[in-house]
Amino acid sequence: GAIQPLELPIEPSQRVILDPLRLYSNDKSSDVSEPSASLPFLPRPQHLDGSLAGDRGFDPFNLASNPTTLLKYRNSELKHARLAMLAAVGWPLAELFHNHLAESWNLPTALNVYDRVPSVLNGGLGNVSPIFWIAAVASAALVETLSGAVGEIQSANLGFDPLRLFQNGRERFMEESELFNGRLAMLAITGFAIQEWFTGNSVVDAIPVFFKPLNIVMEQILASGGATSV
Prior knowledge:
Layout: H1 67-104, H2 130-147, H3 171-199, H4 203-206, H5 214-223
Helix pairs in contact: 1-3
C-alpha cells in the first residue's frame, strides 16, 4: 500500500497557463524570459522593446496591448507630462506672487485660505475668472487641431525647438529627458495637491527651503518655534 495521488499526472502539452492580462504572447520570436527593466520580477511586455524613448518596460496591466494603443498612450503621457511640468512651476509661483500682483493691479485674489492654489481638493475653482477657462480651453483646442486629425496618431514633435537642442545627435537624449522630467512633474503636482489638502498649508510654506530665500526660511522657522534659544 503506497499512497496513490488523487489526480492523474498532466503532460506538459496539456497544461493550461492563465494569462488574463495577455502579458505573454504566442509569438515564439519574442523572448518572454527577458525581465522588465523597471519591474525585474515581471517579464518585459511584448510591445515595449526599448525602441521608444523612455521605455523601461513598465506596463504591469498591459494597457498597451498592441503597437497602435502603445503610441496613443505615449502621446497621452507626453501631453500630460508637458502640462505637469508647467503646473509644477506655476503652482508655487502662484502662491509666491499672486497676491502681490493682484494687489498691484487692483484685482481680487484667487488664492484660498493660507494662500493655497485653487484645485479640486483645495476648492476655490469658482474664484478663477471665466476668461481664464475660456482661454485655456481655446488654447488646448487649437493645439489639438494643429496636431492632427481626429483619430490620427499625432506626432510628439510639434516643431518647437527655438534653442535648437534637438541637434548634433541629441534627439534621443532630449526625448528621454523630457519624459523623465515630465513623469517626475506628474508625481510632484499630485503631491502638491494632496499635501495642501491634507495639511491645510501651502506648498511654499510647508517646504519653504525649496521656494524662498534662506533668510526668510530662517525667519519662518524661528517664528514657528522650530529653533530654541541658547
